[in-house]
Fold these 4 entries.
Entry 1:
Amino acid sequence: MLGSRFIDAVCIAALACAILLTGGLYAAGGAGIITPARDDDYLDLLFQQNRVHSIDIQIDDWDAFLATATTESYSRCDVAIDGETFTGVGLRAKGNNSLGHIAERGLSRYSLKIEFDHYEAGLTYHGLDKLSLDAAFQDNSYLKTYLALDMMRFMGVPTPATSFVQVSVNGEAWGLFLAIEEPEDAFAERVWGEGHGMLYKPDYRSLDDENADVALRYVNDDPASYSGIFESARFDATAVDEKRVVDALKALATGERDEIERSVDVDEVLRYFAVQTFVANLDSYLGSTGHNYFLYEEDGRLAMLPWDYNLAFGTYALGRAELPDDASAYVNLPIDTPAAPEVLAERPLFTNLMAHDDYRERYHGYLDELVQDYVESGRLQTTVRQAEELIAPYVAEDPTAFISFEEFQFGVDTLEAFCLLRAQSIRGQLDGHIPSTLEGQTAAPDELVDASSIRIEDMGELSDLE
């Protein structure tokens, strides 16, 4: 029989080993050797793709919230997601021009943001800290943002998760929305891990300003000259963080290949631009506004992430006298000059990459991959029609819908038709049958794909709100 002293010695040794093992595991986790457990169960819950989820907003004075929606200030409420209630979350309206247009017309179907930890530190929805609810403003199909983000995801671009949700307020149906994972802490940790870099959402102060920083143009070495970037940091940015971004923009501005490789995640950006060009979104970096993207920086290298596609597929032009509003102009948008010359001259992240033949060829390769494997393979049609079948019953009963059910159906048909014609044009541009620049297309208009069979207005325009 073992003596008590011997047993005590064994226990002490075992305890010491356990302490050493725990310390070793902690150190390994910190060094990245072992990835710590992270709560991203929300992906398998709210973002399941085969169903329409439910979100009930439980708020004391909904009318008061709507009356102050344009201030974009937060109100405290509870939300029940698929029957599970979360208490004390932040709710506000979101949008840019959409807020004003909706309010001016006496409507109340605003896009929304739900911030779980706005009032209660550490509160999440199974790891998710923030969520957007897209109201399908100027999107008769309810599918423009959903489809564009699916393309981005297909092409390997870091992309927020999405799902359709039936929103109610205090138990009363409010409408069908698209839930979108907001790019903040949970998203960054999911995509890049706990040691992720910095994330920004550049935005203009006024369209009358130069907005050079939002266009990612190098101005000078002073971070104060880049308020359009740094004031929208999703995490607390230090002076060192800001300097890395400024240095990257300075290197990009040289146009030299070595400097671009050092300052830009070239492959990711080229994939992003391939999709961006396909969906013909002029309310973007490649448009006059220059915004609606996220900027990711890690170790001094920049990458671009997608955001906000309700005005994609040529519909940004509607109602704007300075832009053509016929479908052919956007079905045939030239892949090598996908914006007006004066815009491209101020967009170095696209223009300086395209100045290098190997980058341009890789960009063409990604366009070819998107056309062949996403559209010509039938994936696009399947994605659109499965989503339509899923949401149609909810659209038919949507109490705050901007449009009728028939207009929804026209919108879906037009979106699919636009994409098929767009793929046909891009295929012709890649093969050399259709000019790939604005100058070439102007000189040879008969070579373009005929898109007279569709009206881009059927995908959504401001007059639908009247």
Entry 2:
Amino acid sequence: MNAAPNVHEERVSPEYRVILWLAALGFFMQALDATIVNTALPAIAYSLHVDPMQTHDVVIAYVLTVAALIPVSGWLADRFGIKTVYLLAIVIFTLASLGCALAQTYNQLIVGRVFQGIGGAFLLPVARLALLRILPRNQFLAAMGFIGIPGLIGPMIGPTLGGFMVEYASWHWIFLINVPIGILGLIFTCTHMPNARLEHLPPFDYLGFILLVICMVALTLGLEGFSQGTWSIWQVFGVLSLGIVTGVIYVWHAIRDSRAIFRPELFRNVRFKVGIIGNAVTRLGSASMPFILPLTLQLALGFSPFQAGLMMIPLVFGSIVIKRFATQAISRYGYYRILSINTVLVGVGIMSFAALHLHPNVYTQSIHFFLFGCVNSMQFTAMNTVTLKDLNTAQAANGNSLLSMVMNSCMSMGVALVGVLLHYFEKIGIHHAPLWSFQWTYLVLGLMTVLASLVFRRLKYLKPTYPGQL
């Protein structure tokens, strides 16, 4: 009898609908761009005269830039105003998309992707902050549920749309499509977005930010330099060491400075610590799948770009379907059982793609992709909720930013790791077919993910908790 008023209270009032759609537009642009490029990589490589097996820079440049700028996005929005920063983000993202489409060389494209990442890094965090600052608190949950829909639609249509454009137009259109969307966003941001800001803002931790950026970039570039085969082992070791050393210095800095971006007190929460470490290790393997699968389908199995894009739909559909049951499963069996078993299933699922060529037809391949999408989505849902569930109100925003940074940085390092593995197996298997390199890469990535299940064993000794307490 009391449910109806609550439902009514959760609806977003008409005066906030345009802001809601603006936030959803930013979320859609970011989610679409993160996936639409994957099926176009071989076509981009042939057009710009580079090895298709070495095109992971296109993905890394974007994802790594997003990861590096996440810590500063909220502070800039509070300092200069949500409207100002959101407007600037759309302008940078739109112009960078145009620059990517006009790129005449591979290096020009990489520069364009970096600027796309600068714009994309602010789209989602600032959109979420706008809803939090502007909407009444009792409408925030409904608003977040609404803008989450584009986040699901973008990855579903991105690979297929990218493949369609490559096959029936040219790869340039995967970037040009952002231009009219960006112009629409600019118009409505100028006319409807209030410039909410905070007057008394604490100083930003510039030193900590610089240390984190150097750490992430050095670790990714070290792997990237190794995969390209152009760096000596000492250069690779030196850059990786720089990343590790700056990471250690940041920890020392965070312990001493109360203004640090991410305080070490977060890691006193055992579930948060296990969740962050588990996310980092697991995503090195699983988060690179949207990158390597379209390459496998096109370069090793002879699929067209459009066909490869269509094959990604069952994977994303499986991710969406399982979300409906994820909370129920976690509530019934607990985080320890779900993460211990499901992490192994994700690892085995990754290894199973080594046998992708053995399917008798596309229908069984689609079922294969769908099932992997289910276990992969269950993994992300369980890892993310166990990471954040026990944080108090004061820690929630900080913990969520750190989780987002870890997710994106590990995705960039995972893609770089795929490049390392493909380069290595291509080199030692020079007389084998291209599929051979992909098969061994899947086996290594899968084994790494299976071993990541050991991280979640620490949850066995904690008091059981349930999603109702989130």
Entry 3:
Amino acid sequence: MASCSSCSSSSSCPSATGKGGDGKCNDPMAQQDKIIADRLGHIRHKIFVMSGKGGVGKSSVTVNTAAALARRGFKVGILDVDMHGPSVPNLLGLTSTVEMDPNGELMLPAAYNENLAVISMDSLLQDRDQAILWRGPKKTAAIRQFISDVKWGDLDFLLIDSPPGTGDEHMTVMQSIPDALCVVVTTPQEISLADVRKAINFLQYTNSNVLGVVENMSGLVCPHCHQEIDLFKKGGGEELAKRYALKFLGAIPLDPTTVVAADRGVPVVYLDAESPAKTAFLDLADAIASACDNSLEALASTHAGS
């Protein structure tokens, strides 16, 4: 059990003295908090991908950005906290269920390759067409377990894919991973931007760290003439970033190659052929890696000066 001396809540915790005054923590939640902190201590950057709007391509952005980072040589994990509509395993063509480590104590994330691994509710189901009928507390417990009871090991990046909105899953992630850096995904249209503004308001209200904004479905590159068509407009995400003084991380165009790759269960960045989406996701991965390093440097300098 954890020692109360290492717990920030020991002064107010009724279990602080432990049964029999042995100084051991008898609070299961506090014990799990300590385990979560230890797991996260082995992960350099935690990236929370979110949007107030459904259908903007959060999962596609998460998977292809993670794959691009893995292709750059980073060790990457994906945590899929969309309990009701998990799609990450499908986008990666993963059909295996979650296995346990040799000691039978921790779950092992499903490996896509040597640099990329995934944990998702979808990987825990025997029947993947089964609906998850859970209320908030059960979803909260599952997300915390995905962090505490998964053998992530040492990672450069953990990307967290979220459902639409600003609900239980988002609150749980922000409370469990307070140093997460948030990437907000939008499409250029006003109908999307209106909901994304609510998501940014949520992040401001929770004092979350926003890494920047990504504009998905930003124009269409014709596969025949290679000219760009503003099918769903373009530039709304960049304007949103400027309005809130956030970093604009990049724009991902609509590209038929991405659809073909997703149906095959292969990230577009792993296809041999060059394509606009492949180039854009590799550029986005580089921008996120650079922004994360700058964020760490800023944090270190702030602490050094205090």
Entry 4:
Amino acid sequence: MNWLHTPLFCPPFDPFLPLVFLSSHSSLLLFFSLVQFGRTEVIDNTLNPDFVQKYILDYFFEEKQNLRFDLYDVDSKSPDLSKHDFLGQIYCTLGEIVGSSGSRLEKPLGGIPGKKCGTIILTAEELDNCRDCATMQFCANKLDKKDFFGKSDPFMVFYRSNEDGTFTICHKTEVVKNTLNPVWQPFSIPVRALCNGDYDRSIKVEVYDWDRDGSHDFIGEFTTSYRELARGQSQFTVYEVTLLSFSCSVLPPTLPGNPSQSTSLHYMNPYQMNAYAMALKAVGEIIQDYDSDKMFPALGFGAKLPPDGRVSHEFPLNGNVDNPYCNGMEGILEAYHQSLKTVQLYGPTNFAPVVNHVARYAEAVQDGSQYFVLLIITDGVISDMAQTKEAIVNAAKLPMSIIIVGVGQAEFDAMVELDGDEIRISSRGKLAERDIVQFVPFRDYMDRTGNHVLSMARLAKDVLAEIPEQFISYMKSRAIKPNQDPQPCKSKDPALHTQI
């Protein structure tokens, strides 16, 4: 599946520690798939570090990408972690961060029994395609004197604005000692880090007097933008800060992940169907026999659509909102392959919209003349579990069933919970009227000899096994008897369906 190059930011750590555990130097470690991915800079003498270091991760929304963050109090220059005091850790997934409100996840640190280790705040943002790099230099004149026995030791801190009105630190200059007229060294910063390609995005700059104990004195601040900086030499007269130089260059290009790359679950191998296509073909070719005209609506979820990049969780694969129907399984497969070339796959992964979409059609036809079967092929990652459970509970009283086929190697705990074979699914204290979900992991059906025909046959047999019973349970619950002379179907639905 496609991935997004997503920067992972590590803003303030706000520990709630007694003074006896006062941290003098804080450093955060990020572990990716239990392999150390990187370390932040060390911030001296603070309980509330705001880390500048960012990490660019390949985001695969179809996979469960486990992360672990460890926080240490750095006592020496030794790279050996056992030489430093452990302050706490958290486990999460990259999907949790991206799927959180505003892509901002706040979690309590743990790892030390009986201790409150504080809170960590993680934010993520999709990187713009902009590859520009800005180089600039600043100076200042007549800054306030903050040191009792000297002048000031000024440094600058740059923040970029977020959509929720908050700011994220993106750069710190060096400290220039004992002066009220500093000239800072030129520095380079990717435009993506400074404003993520939005030239009018607010950039806040604060000037501080550095203190050894970490209690830096605030001197002043100003707000600007990349567009204003790019105009050339500028003076921010309120605090006598001057932009001495500004230039822009282009960073070397990177190749983003896409379905044409073999690492994607949606990889379009010219010689073999991917797991999504095989699952669709295996189930669809059997269930299509119960549809009179073999015209099937096919929906996708989790993508940015052209031309404006709008995110949708229920878009037609053929791109036609007014007529999303595809001619047979071959038509659906063609639409699927074409959509991979036109949309940008995007998280979070929400099931509820497409379940509710089908339920609206099923709700309108409850006389037994139609029964709806929704086939969902997924990687197992789900961002709206509570909403999906509620949608399924509501749909359980309607003439519909849901088949979920999990592809890839992710954990499918959430899908098993939705299946409800062991424990009937519930939402807000309300049990589903009947079990309408059948889940199977595709990997369990892969034939060791590579016989995909056999794999697909076994998958179809098991995944469709519960449909007749679910169908009959609905009819019995509504006291609907078989119609000896069925009428032609007059209305189509947005999912695979059968006429009774």
